[in-house]
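Because showing beats explaining, we let one protein speak, sequence and backbone structure tokens together, and leave readers to judge.
___
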Amino acid sequence: MKQGNMMVEFLLSLSNDIALIRDKDDFLRVLRERLKEVIHFNDIVINIFGDDGKSLVPYLYYSEGRRRHHPAFQRSGHSKLGNDHIFEAVMASEQPLVFNVRKLLQTKSPPPYIPLFRETGIVEFSGIRLRTATQEIGCLFLFSEQTGTFPDPVLQIIKGVSHQLSIALANILANDRIATQLKEIESYKQRLENEPQYQQKEIAHADIVGNSREMQQVFRLISRVAPADSTVLILGETGTGKELISRAIHNQSPRRDKLLVKVNCAVLAANLIESELFGHEKGAFTGAIERRIGKFELAHNGTLFLDEIGELPLELQAKLLRVLQEKEIERIGGRNPIRVDVRIIAATNRDLKKEVAAGRFRRDLFYRLDVFPIVVPPLRERKDEIPELADYFIQRFVRRAGKPAMRLGETVREEMMAYHWPGNVRELEHLIERSVLLTSGTVIEQLFMPAAITKEIFVRKSH
């Protein structure tokens, strides 16, 4: 009776210590110091479920013996349900189990780590599953270099504290995930917060180059709409500088000190765009192992640039329309709406009116976005700007490459004026960069164009 009372007192004391656990170090200390008072084990390993929900990976490891610095022993804790009958047995049992290493070696197909246990002195070990009322966490193993370490009274102790250990471990893992997520969000936001300063500097150096009548009209529209909070729809072919226009609008707006967040609707898989835009809660769908903050929340009080909006799937178009109307979002799997104050700038190289007529773009969303359209003309319609743009890019890439000043030869200028430029300003920029890097003198006498481009120029000249 007296021994029973002592055991109850021990369990109560141990439970109090477990309740005070705050991190991984506390957890290990309680296991190593307090359990040692009643169990003469040598090693501790805790395995937790990986991201796939099936693999068990080592989370916490401690050894007193020769295995302490044995890398193979530490790696041996990796397993996958369906491939390891020891882990499966532990996870299927409500009670702690005991395994004898010698007997396991006599079985038909012992797991590959069992011979390693024998080589490093382990004689027997006990394992118990760790879970809370709502979560399967993993399992705890205690290893011993002696036989008879785990009699029934000891197993009852292990069983008695497993629930409290599970809760403490679940809290630690949750805190770790939150800390990791907050760190990632902060890192991402700092990266974005630096971006407007860089963009303002670029624009201050005339990154948007163009003296044509068409581009002067674009500049006037930017100056008119930037101070307002109106939604802007930027239309133009690929490579005309739609993203640069969005940056100019943001940097000249009252939101210039907040974030400009970009989402390219064309490069995300359809099943990822909703999570990218609105975020999701942990467990909202398979693979959602932690909460994700969406781009709308990141852009709160700032600007959200939806590039290639014409590629947005129809089902997402309806959700985007609702956000624009109600100015609130819901994370996937969330229950409470979240208010957001975001200015929308969208861009596309598609003819959205034709997309609406074809049933590929919602009419109501088009009218919601088409508040203040800005059309960026293609380069072939403003060819008089090509020499100015080329000179600007030459100066930029010469400076970056650390080369002496360069200029275009007359023949090269004629070739550039004869070309159709389907890739617009971006194509010109890349061509100049390549030509600067491949030119050894101070005059660019040859455009290092792909063969197809050279052929097109030759054909146009011959006509």
